[in-house]
Amino acid sequence: MNVASVVHVNTSAPYDVLVGHDILKDCAEAIAQVAPCPRTLALVCDDVVEPLYAGTVSRSLEDAGYRVIRFTFANGESSKSMETLIELLNFLAENKVTRTDYIVALGGGITGDLAGLAAAIYLRGIHFIQMPTTLLAAVDSSVGGKTAVNLQAGKNLCGAFHQPDLVICDCDTFDSLCEEHFVCGLAEAIKYGILCDRELFQMFEAYNRGDSIADIVARCVQIKADYVVGDEEDHGKRQFLNLGHTPAHSIEKLSHFGVLHGHAVAAGMAIMARACEKKGICKEAFSQRLCALLAKHNLPTASAFDAQAMAEVALSDKKRRGGKIFLVVIEEIGKCALHEIPVEELEDFFRAGETA
Questions:
Q1: Cβ neighbourhood burial of 247 (10 Å; 0-12, 13-18, 19+)
Q2: How far apart are CA 68 and CA 43, in angstroms?
Q3: Can you tell me the distance from the alpha carbon of 102 to that of 123, in angstroms, rounded to the nearest whole number?
Q4: Which of 76, 97, 251, 304 is the most buried (most CB within 10 A)?
């Protein structure tokens, strides 16, 4: 396999993240290290990814002696639901998947979240493998063990923590992404630079699509792994990974999920940067620099929804703790802090970040 980097994630159930090029066709070689034959592998993907990559993955696995069954669902946020989850669980049961078998999530973040949650609860928990095909999933959702589906009240409100046994990231799959979906991943990757890596932030200021991305992916995965280790269930330092996500989840919900997650995160980070400057939290003039970077990559720098509407939606956010909510605030590039505020002050905070 043409693996460029291996990032070890030392959680309670340790696993490796393999990053490289042209590795889907040889994926059975890596999977055999964690899931030796014979066993059934339930390949889960959406109807956009299925014709692109499911054949390549299935051939590799079947040639190695695995029994492969496929579950395909409709592309889009509407499939990240209890209804699709139940369909998947019934599919696993009907195909007599056992506790020694594996689910393989082939696709973006929705696929990984859906398949991961099914793996967490089917037969009280079975193994699964992540094979992200989007930049967003590669640098964010495929690592860390967060799995979830949406409820009518909000995003990711029904979920579980369930670590994968292996993550295989073939960066060649990003070539099939349209510009809109590719830059969604850039937004989450830029987040890591703001959090703790000024040099990484500067790399994105120089980056253009077509430049090598594998090293950037590996660097982002390592940063996320460092946050996840020791705080798998999001009670402490892992909460830093929510930078920009409180306004972002409100934007998604208010748009009926018409705004893509990465675009919402970009707008959310811009809102937080402006608010932190106005409230004297940020120690450097940063918001204009961030907005210039986001604009360079055709990412939004503001929300179409007002502060009051976003604050009302955020009251159902899973980051709320009773009458308070945690925000990740920006002190300078590469340094952030957790900031707890009363929920009644959230609207004012968002309003401070609406415009420059």
A1: buried
A2: 7
A3: 12
A4: 251
All domains of the chain in start order, with CATH: 3-176 (3.40.50.1970), 179-352 (1.20.1090.10)
Q: What is the pLDDT of residues 290-349, one digit of tens each?
A: 999 999 999 999 999 999 999 999 887 656 666 888 899 999 999 999 998 988 899 999
Give the C-alpha separation, 19 to 3, whole Å. 6
Can you say whether residue 257 is alpha, beta or left, with left for phi > 0 and alpha for psi between -120 and 50 degrees? left
pLDDT tens string 263-292: 999 999 999 999 999 999 998 889 999 999
Kindly tell me the burial class for residue 124, based on how many C-beta atoms sit within 10 Å of its own C-beta (0-12, 13-18, 19 or more).
exposed
Alpha-carbon span 89 to 103, nearest angstrom: 11
Give the torsion sign (CA, 332, 334, 335, 336): positive
> What is the C-alpha separation between 171 and 178, in angstroms, rounded?
14
| 345 HSE (CA, 13 A, CB side) | 11
Closest of 160, 158, 161, 163 to residue 83, by C-alpha? 158
Q: How many whole angstroms separate alpha carbon 66 and alpha carbon 59?
A: 10
CA neighbor of 121 nearest in space, from 80, 93, 96, 154: 93
Within 13 Å and on the Cβ side, how many CA atoms surround 302? Answer: 11
Residue 287, φ and ψ in degrees, nearest 5: -60, -40
146: burial class by Cβ within 10 Å (0-12, 13-18, 19+)? buried
Pairing between β-strand 67-73 and β-strand 102-107 as defined by DSSP bridges: unpaired
User: Which of 53, 4, 6 has the alpha carbon at shortest distance from 167?
Assistant: 6
Q: Which amino acid is it at 343?
A: V
Tell me the C-alpha distance between 172 and 170, whole Å: 5
Task: For residue 119, give every residue at least 6 positions away whose Cβ sits within 8 Å of its Cβ, in sequence order, or none.
Answer: 103, 125, 126, 127, 128, 147, 162
Place of tokens 């349209």: 178
The Cα 163–Cα 84 span in angstroms is 21
